[in-house]
């Protein structure tokens, strides 16, 4: 991998953490201002779905744009590393008893689940960013 790819992965990991924190904070704001006060619950649900979708896809798209090539791989790695890092850093604030299997099981499931979910969606977004950035038509790429 080139330095640009490693830089893109680092930017993608930072974008995962920033987007997930942004989704969490804006989601709480929507919840307190709209749902708790019984205002338009339909509007709040639509806003939350849109917010979650943007928060999942944006890091991979950013990583794919920065990388210029191998957008799927770069987006995948950024989502995997960022998801595991975010889940480990912000997912469990309370102390975990590592001796009990019932306590460590959900933590490991959260680490793996978040990493896999973000890696697949970020890979798709990274591939879309690479396709958006490329100027070659389909006919010219078939001849290579």
Label this structure with key terms.
mainly alpha, globular, single chain, 144 residues, 82% helix
State the order of secondary-structure elements, H for helix, E for strand.
HHHHH
Give the number of domains.
1
Largest sheet: none
The coarse overall form would be globular
Number of H- or I-type helical stretches: 5
| Rg from Cα | 18 Å
Class derived from helix and strand content = mainly alpha
Task: Indicate the topology.
Layout lengths: L2 H33 L5 H27 L3 H20 L10 H33 L4 H5 L2
Q: What does it look like?
A:
The protein is built from five helices and no strands. By secondary structure, it is mainly α. The chain has one domain.
Write a brief structural summary.
The chain has about 140 residues and is an all-alpha fold.
């Amino acid at each position: 991998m080139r330095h640009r790819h490693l830089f893109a992965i680092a930017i993608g990991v930072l974008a995962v953490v920033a987007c997930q924190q942004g989704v969490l904070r804006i989601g709480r704001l929507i919840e307190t201002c709209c749902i708790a006060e019984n205002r338009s619950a339909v509007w709040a649900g639509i806003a939350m779905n849109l917010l979650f979708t943007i928060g999942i896809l944006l890091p991979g798209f950013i990583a794919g744009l920065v990388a210029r090539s191998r957008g799927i791989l770069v987006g995948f790695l950024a989502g995997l590393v960022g998801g595991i890092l975010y889940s480990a850093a912000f997912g469990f604030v309370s102390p975990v008893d590592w001796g009990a299997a019932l306590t460590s099981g959900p933590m490991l499931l959260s680490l793996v689940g978040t990493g896999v979910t973000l890696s697949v969606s970020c890979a798709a977004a990274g591939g879309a960013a690479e396709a958006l950035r490329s100027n070659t038509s389909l006919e010219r790429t078939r001849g290579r």
